[in-house]
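Project channel, design review

CF: Before we commit to the Streptomyces mirabilis constructs, I'd like one complete example in the thread so the newer folks can see what an input/output pair looks like. Taking Ectoine/hydroxyectoine ABC transporter permease subunit EhuD.
RD: sounds good, go ahead.
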Amino acid sequence: MNWDWGAVRDFMPHFWDGLLVTLQALALGSVISFALGLVWALLMRTPTRWVRWPVGVVTEFIRNTPLLVQLFFLFYVLPEWNITFSALTTGVVAIGLHYSTYTMQVYRAGIEGVPVGQWEAATALNLPLRRTWTAVILPQAIRRVVPALGNYVISMLKDTPMLMAITVLEMLGEARLYSQEHFQFTEPLTVIGVAFILISYPASLLLRALERRLVR
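CF: and here is what came back for Ectoine/hydroxyectoine ABC transporter permease subunit EhuD:
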């Protein structure tokens, strides 16, 4: 096997385009998953059963359905109901929605990990419920779960190649397209593999350091 540096050079403009799409999908998907996951977690703590039950059913269904199936459903089925989004928007929504069911569990663990004394102190101070959550409970809970949330960001990064299935040209999509057009697979796919390692491995080290700092 001969390594062709010329193919690497020719592929790099496509790689940068794919990297930009990958990071965009990752950033927006992370925002959706973090925000929606917190909403799910709070709704699951409401005393009203008719709220908890539907939320539990929906999140269990999403969590136990493959992301690829959800991508196909949103991209191919929703247009039949006259609900149409761009391929990238569909991918971002699918990733954010899928991972929100996992971040929900992280938030729930963080909230349940807040000492009972904190709840009792807020009650003793006669703090309104909203103030109790925003000033006492959530700041402590979120601080505890930041490393776990970061781990899901890395997982989302590794799942972005699935967007290729709905025509989104992220990194792997660009590599596949270039390989098919030029009949050179080794160089572009190797570049993509190295890129994922260079992004995910330092991020995992950063998360470990952050976790050690937060648990002090």
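RD: helpful, thanks. The chain has a mean pLDDT of 91.
CF: The helical segments are 5-43, 49-63, 67-77, 87-112, 116-124, 129-159, 171-182, 186-214.
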